From TrEMBL:
<keyword id="KW-0805">Transcription regulation</keyword>
<dbReference type="InterPro" id="IPR001789">
    <property type="entry name" value="Sig_transdc_resp-reg_receiver"/>
</dbReference>
<dbReference type="GO" id="GO:0003677">
    <property type="term" value="F:DNA binding"/>
</dbReference>
<dbReference type="InterPro" id="IPR039420">
    <property type="entry name" value="WalR-like"/>
</dbReference>
<feature type="domain" description="Response regulatory">
    <location>
        <begin position="3"/>
        <end position="119"/>
    </location>
</feature>
<feature type="modified residue" description="4-aspartylphosphate">
    <location>
        <position position="54"/>
    </location>
</feature>
<dbReference type="InterPro" id="IPR000792">
    <property type="entry name" value="Tscrpt_reg_LuxR_C"/>
</dbReference>
<dbReference type="GO" id="GO:0000160">
    <property type="term" value="P:phosphorelay signal transduction system"/>
</dbReference>
<dbReference type="InterPro" id="IPR058245">
    <property type="entry name" value="NreC/VraR/RcsB-like_REC"/>
</dbReference>
<dbReference type="Pfam" id="PF00196">
    <property type="entry name" value="GerE"/>
</dbReference>
<protein>
    <submittedName>
        <fullName>Response regulator</fullName>
    </submittedName>
</protein>
<keyword id="KW-0804">Transcription</keyword>
<keyword id="KW-0597">Phosphoprotein</keyword>
<dbReference type="GO" id="GO:0006355">
    <property type="term" value="P:regulation of DNA-templated transcription"/>
</dbReference>
<keyword id="KW-0238">DNA-binding</keyword>
<feature type="domain" description="HTH luxR-type">
    <location>
        <begin position="148"/>
        <end position="213"/>
    </location>
</feature>
<dbReference type="Pfam" id="PF00072">
    <property type="entry name" value="Response_reg"/>
</dbReference>
Length: 224
């Protein structure tokens, strides 16, 4: 059972989401909140797997709440929901650690698929989309501190090859074809580099590649 928390300042919106999700055999809505701060209190007391998070709320917005929720790897995964199709919101959501970004007018099937995807460890925001956003907003990215750079340098040569290709937005199948490996081997390398770098998913890997300078203005390079 996938435990979901709904965070939106509009009660009617939450009721609509609950109606859709409660109809699924494998999804259970375990709590609701109308703002970021009560959402954090709720999550501190209620085990949850996925949070559907509104962006614009009156006190603590969804981006800040997401940043706090995803501060540890053990926390629930967050899908940002917004009525505004703006790159700035998607970029902020990715930087905050969200595993997904959807418009509120997405259909029920798309919403349910997104919840199942992030629960299984995937990201709903495609790495290629992440890369496009980071190419546009890279000037706003701070550089990572030395320990992150050291962690990247601690990857094996093959793990680094995989990271660089993931940073380009390639799928596991495409990475496997490029490196003449099996998809299972690529998944193994991904799992190891995620653990070494403290990452949750491919989207965070793309962000880290930009922050550590592996990617600059759309180009890739190995660390010295």
């Amino acid at each position: 059972m996938i435990r979901v928390v709904l965070v939106d300042d509009q009660e009617l919106v939450r009721a609509g989401f609950r109606m859709v999700l409660d109809a699924q055999d494998d999804i259970e809505v375990v709590g609701e909140a109308g703002d970021g701060e009560p959402a954090l209190r709720l999550l501190a007391a209620t085990p949850a797997d996925v949070v559907l998070m509104d962006v614009r709320m009156p006190r603590m917005d969804g981006i800040e709440a997401t940043r706090r929720i995803t501060g540890t790897r053990a926390g629930p995964r967050v899908i940002i929901l917004t009525t505004f199709d703006m790159d700035e919101y998607a970029f902020a959501a990715i930087k905050a650690g969200a595993a997904g970004f959807l418009l509120k007018d997405a259909g029920p099937a798309q919403l349910i698929a997104a919840i199942r995807a992030v629960h299984s460890g995937d990201a709903v925001v495609a790495p290629s989309t992440t890369r496009r956003l980071l190419d546009r907003f890279a000037v706003h990215l701070p550089g990572k501190e030395d320990k992150a750079l050291d962690a990247v340098k601690g990857l094996t040569g093959r793990e680094l090859d995989v990271l660089l290709l993931v940073a380009r937005g390639l799928s596991n199948a495409e990475v496997a074809a490029r490196l003449h490996l099996s998809e299972a081997t690529v998944k193994t390398h991904l799992g190891r580099l995620f653990t070494k770098l403290g990452l949750r998913d491919r989207v965070q890997a793309v962000v880290l590649a930009y922050e550590t300078g592996l990617v600059k203005t759309g180009q890739l390079q190995r660390p010295e």
